[in-house]
Amino acid sequence: MTTRWLPVLVLLIGLLAGCGNGTSTEEAGPTEPDAAWRADVEREVASLNAMRSRLAQTITSEETVDMGTFARVCKPVGQRARALSDSTGWVVQQIADKYRNPANQLDSTGAEAHARFAANPDLTQRWTRVERNGASGWRYYRRITVEPTCLACHGAKETRPDFVKQNYPDDKAYGFEAGDLRGLYAVFIPDSLRAAQAASD
Ligand code: HEC
Question: 80: Cβ–Cβ under 8 A, 6 or more apart, which residues?
Answer without folding.
Answer: 48, 51
